[in-house]
Amino acid sequence: MTNRLCFSSLFVAACFIAGNANAATNEFGLDVLRVSPRVAVVYGDPWNNAILALASSKGLVVVDSSWSKSVALGFRQAIATEFKRSDFVYLINSHEHTDHIGGNAAYADLPIIAQESVRREMLKMPTDPKKQASWRDFSAAKEIAKMRDWYTKNYPSFLDTPAYAGAVKCWEAIGRDFHAGPEPTPPTITFDRRLTLNLGDLTVRLVYFGGFHSVGDTIISVPEENLVMIGQLFFPQKLPHIPAKQAETTTPAMVDNWLVVLREVLNESDENTRFMTCSGRQFMKKGDVEQFLGYLEKMWIGVRRARAEGKALEQARAALPLKDFPAYAQLPDEAFVGTEWEVRNIQQNNVDFFWKVLSH
Questions:
Q1: Of 87, 173, 196, 272, which is most buried, counting CB atoms within 10 Å of its CB?
Q2: What are residue 36's phi and psi, to 5 degrees?
Q3: b or e along 329-339 (b: 16 or more beta carbons within 10 Å of the residue's beta carbon)?
Q4: What contacts 108, CB < 8 A, 6 or more positions away?
């Protein structure tokens, strides 16, 4: 499925255990967290994605649509049930990966908003042979077997929960939708750098951050709620990891933009600001964003200096060891070890990423 099958359903296991034990008894075992009178986050689908819902005076706004139409309809109903209203007005896509835009067809009656690159990538899908093959060859049974195997070995009691049953039903629904022929539903409203939605009592600000986790990375903030969604840029207690293939399209100007945008986000936040990802349950604080910015800035400056001094890539790697980044030095320099999604030497890979970006 697009760019995110480098992750597995195993990634969300700990998230389910941490917060989904009381999942609602809806079809897909979705779990609704009411953050405030105007904000709810619905957790679910096989990867425990966090679908943000905002109840403004002008209608309901949803951020991301999960994997496929059937699953997205389940999320949409859960949101309507939670707020006891169904006046949906916008769907926003945070980026172009399948598990965030695959269910757009469930909101085809609404304006769908995203950074222009998301629309561009989605328009390619119907004629992309790899994409067509991923839909055609998808096996729900295989995904369910991997998921069941992991829980059997690590948390066998979870196999009897509504959340696990819901994840199974999600995989089955995704399989049916993919084999029937997905309905890519591209955004109908796009923006270049920024877009602000004025929704009466709420303001939703979208700022382009693209080129880190995906082409269309977008940071979404709601000032009145002191809430910021950072997509999948970084996670608490995890060393940031930039996918190597992003270096093919990320430019130095885009990296500079990351630093500008993060400083702006920090300037507009305070110690009470809640930062959330679109995959996972833990809210973060301003300090987490400060650490992320500090990491990116030191890496970018360090690699640029190495190249300016005529050093080789190996020398740049040696000059930027993980131990020199106190905020992350004690964290694992690897992920998914022992699985087909294994990533080792994350720090070195990140240095390599910046090096390649400077080759454009």
A1: 173
A2: -160, 175
A3: eeeebebeeee
A4: 183, 185
Q: Among positive and negative, which fits the CA dihedral 77, 82, 85, 90?
A: negative
What are the pLDDT digits (tens) for 306-338?
Answer: 999 999 999 999 999 999 999 999 999 998 776
Please write the tens of the pLDDT for every residue from 267-286.
Answer: 999 999 999 999 888 999 99
Q: 10 Å Cβ neighbour count for 24?
A: 19
**φ, ψ for residue 126, nearest 5 deg:** -60, -20
Average pLDDT over residues 171-177: 97
Comparing CA positions, the residue from 36, 39, 33, 34 lying closest to residue 60 is 39
State the Cα angle at 216 between 214 and 219, rounded to 5°.
100
Identity of the residue numbered 153? K
Amino acid 360: pLDDT = 80
The closest of 87, 91, 39, 89 to 62, measured between CA atoms, is 91
Confidence of residue 344 (pLDDT cuts 50, 70, 90): very high
Residues contacting 280, CB < 8 A, separation 6+: 12, 15, 48, 50, 235
pLDDT at 54: 98
Residue 158 C-alpha from the chain's centroid: 24
Mean residue pLDDT of the chain comes to: 92
Contacts of 160 (CB under 8 A, 6+ apart): none
The 8-class DSSP code of residue 342 comes to -
What DSSP element (H or E) covers 198?
A: strand 194-198
Backbone phi and psi for residue 203, each to the nearest 5 degrees, phi listed first: -120, 135
Token couple for 111: 């304006």
- Asked whether residue 16 carries a pLDDT value surpassing 80, the answer given is no
Q: At what angle do helices 140-154 and 162-180 cross, to 10 degrees?
A: 160
